[in-house]
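task queued by scheduler; priority normal; single chain, no ligands, no partner chains; default sampling; output format set to structure tokens
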Amino acid sequence: MMKVRSGMFDESSKSHASSKLVSMIAAFVIVFLVIYLFEAVVPSILTMKPMMEEFANMGLEEGETISFAESMKVANKVSAPPAVMIPTLISTVFGTIISMVYCRFGEMRSLGSMGVRKKKLVPHYLTGLGIGAVLMTVIVLLSALFGAQKISFCTGVNFGLIGLYWIGWFFQGMSEEFIFRGYLMNTVGGKHNYMIALTVSSVAFALAHAANPGFGPLVFVNLALFAVFAGLYMILTDDIWGSCAIHSIWNCTQGNLYGISVSGTNEMESVMKTVADSDSTILTGGNFGIEGSIFTTIVLLAASAIVLYLMKKKGVMISENETETKKR
């Protein structure tokens, strides 16, 4: 059995959180629902009128209902314009704030236990940006190389709008890292071993996207793999900033550089346009986008293996025998 040396887990072990896994998960569900409600305020206000107009155009009479799938299509359509999408992304800052407040005052643990550290913040964030951009680029190039996608450059690109999207992705990527890694993974990791912490947080992260268009078994696996990779990278660096950067630039590169649907969202302003050149959803990812592709599976498995190697080389991951030897 392997163990990890993690300052974050060590600090989290002193928290007031219950050591019972079921209680931890129950608390997380409650906090997550509170976060969801706060994050939904801005998009609800912005989409209320266009949603009513869409339902009226569909000929729905008072009291008449439609299927969940149809309602999600309408929601995606009215959420697609930049005037709605960008404020929606920025409003995810509530996820970061609420998870920090809960950990600090609910579990009585330090922000350092979430990976919030000043030391090497800038170099860790810049390194994360590079890693996230390279990973998504490799996925897209593999997809094009094997004939699953075609890539072309767009004309009349609005780089100012792309800059606004980047601000939105900055908050969105950071928020999900604070919720699922800084909070959930580290809370569990403080009381249980790192494998349980990674498993619980990764499954929760994947399930949080279950309502997105195109969600399916391979999408679930890939989202969980991304969470595992981000979690391992966070343990390796012992802070949250690198994984925040990876997450944000992963989405920005995917949506605003290559023009691919981000987790089932609609098209947005991009430098390039990537379209499916294959009918195989295993190769293209289908409606969810390239995150649901087998190429994403391969790249994330390779990336996770590299991080595990670095953890072992750096002495972050050690065997129980090594632990016992050092104790003597």
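post-processing summary
- The chain has 13 helices and four strands.
- The radius of gyration is 20 Å.
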